[in-house]
Amino acid sequence: MKKFLVTFLTVLLGGAIVAGVGVFNAVQQEAPPVLVANVVGTKTAPSGEEMPHAELYLDVYPNSSSQVPQPETKSPINNLLLAGQPFYHPSTSLQVPSNSLVTIHFRQYDSGGQIYNPYFSKVHGTVDGTMKWNGEEVTEIKPDEVGHTFTVHQYPESTQPYFFMSIPLPMNKANAKTDKMGYPVDPQIVSVTFMTGDAGSYVWNCEFPCGDLYQEFGGPMQTRGWMAGTFDVVDA
Amino acid sequence: MSTSTLPVSPTTGEPITTIARRARLGLWLLIVADVAGTIALVISYSYLWSLNVNGGWAPPGATLTANQTNSTLPTTPSTATFAVEWPFWAILFVVVVATALMWFGYRSARSGNHAGLMVGAGLSFLVTVAALIFQWIQMSTFPFDAGDGAYASAVLLLCASNIFHLFLLLFIGMGIFMRARKGLIDKTNWYQAQLLSYYMTWVCIAFLLGAILTTFMVESPNTDPAIFGTFKQQ
Amino acid sequence: MSVDTAVETKTVFGAEVPQPPQHGAAGGVMRGLNFGTGLIGGIGLAAVAGWVTAILTPSSASNASFAPMEPTYVYLAVLLGWVVGFMLGMGAFVGPLRWVVGRDITHADAEYMAGKDLGRKRYWKYTTDHKVVGIQYLVVTLFILGFAGLLAMLIRTELGMTWTSLFTPSFYNSMIGTHGIAMIIGMIVVISGPLGNFIVPMMIGARDMAYPRLNALSVWLLVAAVPMLVSSMFMGGIQDGWSVYQPLASQAPVGMLGYQMTIIIFAISTAIASVNLMTTILTMRAKGMTWSRTPIFVYGIFAASVMGLYAFPFFQYAQILGLTDRVFSTSFFDPLNGGSVWLYENLFWLLGHPEVYVILIPSMAVALELMPVFLRKPLFSFNFAVAGIVGVVALSGLVWAHHMYMTGWAPAANYPFMLSTEMISIPVGFLVLVAIGTFWRGTAWTRLPLMAVYAVIFNKMIGGVTGVYLSDVPADQYFHGSMFVVAHFHFMLMGAGLFGAMAGIAFFFPKMTGRILDERVGSIGLWTAFIGFQITFISMFVAGLQGQPRRVLDFDDQFNLSNWISTIGAYIIGIGMLIFLSAIITSWRSGVIASSNPWGSKSLEWQTETPVPLENFPVLPVVTERPYNYGVPDPYEAELESIDEDLTEKAGTK
């Protein structure tokens, strides 16, 4: 009986340790709070169909400041290692309605440069293949003037509805006028509208190498809350 | 000869000859590990020398043919060149002298010449100190930095390995001298001096390998090196 | 000039032995040092080194990838401070310093350092007795395997279904890398450490290892390495697999330094341990223990030591070069500046493949060692077993590039390496055939150790057969990088390696602890783990054949079923291992007291009393026969006996 008890307790304790460490780590890596696109009315799709229209507002900052705190992480070491790195604000966990037209408004405060793959300096997957940059409609920007990209990827899973969308966010010039926090007074303003399909889960990230490590694709580039996140299409 | 007349280990009671035999074998085996590590460095040097990947073997200031220069490499001031060769041989010579002195000390101990042991071990220690200083001076005056290409990296690591070996020799050499001074190494118990002599001989070979590489394998024979794609911006 | 002359004498194993001067109480400064002072020294020096480095490093310093260098320098300083401070606090430098100043240790010092009359405290000190070191190795290894096993459970939880998203991709990668290297370290040590140290000296009739202080050094260096590996998980982790291929490793988060320093320290520990074991075996075998009378387990440990000795430095130097690339901007592996990633791969696999045999050979040797005991017949074809081990050692250094078929390095070398790899299955096959031959017409006394041997042979057969496909260049083009490879090497390293270790622990447990390992609980654990193992990895073979790539966190849902089954199997393994662990814990604490030779073995370690006295044998034994002369003689026994007699005669005439 005693032996059985000790054996049972050992298994229980081992299981508890595994579960405890797993839960602890899962909680530590909790995704940032979900930013939901609010439906603001309806809009006409290119097909002439009237669809629900939702909007999201995202900013891209080159670093944190007293005005814009850096994304929260529960790991103090991660906080230290990622300090001073660029990030999307206010969240990278995005949620948009299914079968709708969604407009995202970006304010891009960071500098930039040459993108390795010019494919990502073009607009892909939007309603009419364009985006609005400082009031003008464009289909691409110069590959050497890219600040960041917002690229939503299809999961490599056959049951997910197809979805792919990528837009470049132009860089701010080095001589751009900045405020006391060092952010450009006139950031790059980009708006983009795209159509969602059925509900599905996707990931998005920036394809411009703006981080450190791994040929500048590491650090914030691979960390949710900074330059990567989730993109969920949900039924209203 | 009865066992009681032989010196014995105070901890196990075994004859010193038994302890010495065991220690010699252990040393040879440790040298095997050291040889493997040194071979890893030799392989690294000769492999990178033979490949000249992206034309990046030579330091930026070395004389290069046009097709050895990769235009995508970052431009750096052309001050970094190959190292002067003679210091490698000079330092090797100093280490050989230190080794010869240690051998003299060890042979003196075996023949009961305590003064010879003291002179050999003491001078060997001092010459090893000199070798360490020379090695340090050479490393700190190389016409290149660690980041100046594969040649610079390989040479610096060979020198770092030399420094590591010299520090080991200093530590053990100091021990041999101090122990000789206390009379713990003598005509009947000389195996530790013998071990150091053996090890120093191997260290000479390691230095020799480095000198051969840095003298006879300087400019890469690969004049048409592979240029691998990089993420470098054009 | 002061001259210390030995004036006093002490009785050492019956002889009056002159002693050097005794300074103070026996043990000297070592009396006040233990694991606690080691921790204080390690943490203290790590803190100071990190703090000073942080002050000295400009916060703007960055490398070519724009990664800030301050965390790199600080973390490296902390790691170096930790290992030096810990070893300082343990007393590792006392012996060398005493040697330098000529203050030799006395017999009383040596007895103190061997843990005489220290009770359980000796397990927490820099103790030189090989039996204490063996137990220390066992505990450290169980911790490492437990840590790696914990990560395995978390990995399988994440992989149970695609898009479980329990962990972020970075952390998942980090768990994979850390699990891999921790398991490799644990498996390398699990037999050679505990059993090699505890059993081998007794098995050959020696009083201790050749270099007792180096023995303590090797185990405490391993202890020092463990926190470095664990700490890497908190510093961005090891995200590039256990092999940490370049140039990824140079671009990885600072946690990579934890990996590199772990390997550098572990390689020193391994080299020291290998030298110690080899010297012990070569020079300290009992009188009459000729090579034909040396137990096969000793051959296995010797072979593992040989491979560890020549191969580990390549791995160690690969990490040193990687570390300098990272910290000092050298370019051994950076193609931009003339480096080559193939250089890394070659240096890495020059260890990487012999390491497989460093794990497997001791495991097979344990199996072969205990089979004659439980089958009550001689080992079938002892010479073939030795030939198998020698063959593996000889070929182990010639097969490394089969890991690189698909990398593009030297395609012309693929076929020679295919040949050498397939050739090595011949000596490995010898070992399996010797096992099967020993089973043939044996009267199996099926106790827990023999049950584990059944598991080893079954797993090794599957691992070996699937390995042949992977050694084949055309087949490997399909299998490479798939879950098939993962399943294969788990069958070899875990299926054969770990189950072999379980056999060894169960077999030698009575000698090591003085108690019998609970057979009922132990065998429930063993078979539960075995069943779970088959479920996990056969299902993983299926996933691999379906085409699931390894190292991929989120996969297509067509692989869900096989992964789900694998995860269930992994939990069963976990439960089985925990049951086995509970058998160890309960038996160690309150198991049935063991007699000195509960299995009726004929080898020397069982001929001394249990608990084993400090000096192992009151009088050193003399060996007069082969170690496996049980029951019906081997058909070749008469021939071998005559050879033995010849040898004895020749030895006598010298």
Describe this structure in words.
The complex is a heterotrimer of chains A (236), B (234) and C (654). By secondary structure, chain A is an alpha+beta fold. In chain A, 14% of the residues lie in helices and 33% in strands. Chain A has two helices and 13 strands; from the N terminus they run αβββαββββββββββ. In chain A, a hairpin with a 2-residue loop joins β7 (131-133) and β8. The longest helix of chain A is centred in the N-terminal third of the chain and has 27 residues, at 2-28. Chain A is globular. Chain A starts with a helix and ends with a strand. Chain B is mainly alpha-helical. Chain B contains five helices and no strands. In chain B, α3 runs antiparallel to α4 (149-181). The longest helix of chain B is centred in the N-terminal third of the chain and has 36 residues, at 16-51. Chain B is elongated. With 654 residues, chain C is mainly α. Chain C has two domains: 29-126, no CATH class; 127-590, Cytochrome c oxidase-like, subunit I domain (Cytochrome C Oxidase, Chain A, Up-down Bundle), CATH 1.20.210. Chain C contains 21 helices and two strands. Chain C is globular, with a radius of gyration of 25 Å. The model of chain C has no long low-confidence stretch (mean pLDDT 92). Chains B and C meet through α1 and α4 of B and β2, α3, α4, α11 and α12 of C.
CATH level 4 superfamily of chain B: Cytochrome c oxidase, subunit III, four-helix bundle
The CATH topology of the largest domain in chain A turns out to be Immunoglobulin-like
What is the molecular shape of chain A?
globular
Mean pLDDT of chain B: 89
Name given to the CATH architecture of chain B: Up-down Bundle
Remind me, CATH topology of chain B? Answer: Four Helix Bundle (Hemerythrin (Met), subunit A)
Number of distinct helices of chain B: 5
DSSP helix fraction of chain A: 10-25%
Mean pLDDT of chain A: 91
Multimeric status of the protein: heterotrimer
Query: What is the end-to-end distance of chain A?
Result: 56 Å
From the alpha carbons, calculate the radius of gyration of chain A and give it in angstroms: 21 Å
Helix content estimate of chain B: 55-70%
